[in-house]
Amino acid sequence: MARRISRKGMRQDEFIEAALDTGEWVEKHWRPVAAIGGAAVALLLIVVAWNGWGGHRDAEVSRLLSEGLALYTGDRPVAGAQPKAAPATGRPAEALPLFEQAARMGKSTPRGQVAAFYQGVSLLRLGRASEAAPILEEVAGNASDRPLADAARGMLAEAYEKAGDVEKAVATYRKLAETPGAAFPPDVALMQLARLLEERGRTDEARQVLKEIITKNGGQGASATAAREKLEGKKAGP
Fold first, then answer.
1. By CB neighbour count within 10 A (0-12 exposed, 13-18 middle, 19+ buried), where does 39 fall?
2. Does domain 12-79+86-176 have CATH number 1.25.40.10?
3. How far apart are CA 86 and CA 221, in angstroms?
4. Contact between residue 147 and residue 46 where contact means Cβ atoms under 8 Å apart
5. Ramachandran category for residue 145: left, alpha or beta (phi over 0 → left; psi -120 to 50 → alpha)
6. pLDDT for residue 63 is more than 60
7. In this structure, are residues 47 and 79 in contact, taking their beta carbons and an 8 Å threshold?
8. What is the dihedral of CA 84, 85, 90, 91, to 10 degrees?
C-alpha cells in the first residue's frame, strides 16, 4: 500500500514528492484499487492536487483543512485510546464541519476546492449521498486542478450510484473512461462501470464493457487480464 502521507507541517516540495509517488503507485496497482471501489481511487489521486499549491494561501483555511484531514484519516488520536493500539479509523462526522468551514472560507481557491471535495466525500461516507452529489458536481465542474476535478467525478459516480441514480452514475464512469488525459485511470472507470451494470442485472452491457477493456488494451496487460477473468467467471457460473 502507498506510504501514509502526513498532512500536518508538510512542505510543498514534500507534497510534490508524495504526489509523484502516489501517481506511480496507482498506475502499478490499479487492479486491487479497482477491487475496493471508486472512493479509494479518488482518495489516492487527490493528493496530486497539493502539487500546484503555493505557500501564500489563507492560514485559517489551511489549518481547518489540515485538522479535518487528520480527523478524516484517523491521524488525530482519540482521547483515552492506548498508543499504538488498533489501526486508526477515520472520523468523518467530526471532520465534516471543518471541511465545510474551510470550503466556505476558501471558496474558489485551490485549498477551498479540496476542502469542498472532502466535504462531499465525508457526506458520502456518512451515507448522505444525495447531499454529497451537488457538492462533488461543483468541484468536478469548477476545480482549477485537473486531478482534483477527475477525483471528484470518480466520487460523484459513487454518490449517484448510492443515491439510486444509476443512469447518472453510468454516464459519469463513461465520461471518466473516455476523457483524454484524465487523471482517473480509464480502465478503473470501465471496471467500475462493468461492476455497476452487473449489480443492476444488466449483464449483457457489463460483458460488453469488459470486452471493450480487452480490445482497448490489445488483449494484453493487467486490465485486459482482469476483464478476461471476469468474463470467464461469468461463463463458468450458473
1. middle
2. yes
3. 37
4. yes
5. beta
6. yes
7. no
8. -110
* First-to-last C-alpha distance (Å) of the chain: 35
pTM above 0.85, yes or no: no
Instruction: Give pLDDT, residue 188.
Output: 87
Cβ atoms within 10 Å of 29's Cβ, excluding its own: 14
Q: What is the DSSP letter of 87?
A: P
CA gap 107, 130 in Å, rounded? 21
CA dihedral 27, 158, 61, 91 (to 10 degrees): -100
CA torsion angle 156 161 166 170 (round to 10):
50
pLDDT digits (tens, 9 = 90+) for 67-97: 998 898 887 655 444 443 334 568 999 999 9
Closest-CA residue to 9 (of 55, 78, 46): 55
pLDDT confidence of residue 80:
46
Mean residue pLDDT of the chain comes to 76
* Sign (positive or negative) of CA dihedral 76, 78, 82, 88: negative
pLDDT band at 39 (very low <50, low <70, confident <90, very high): low
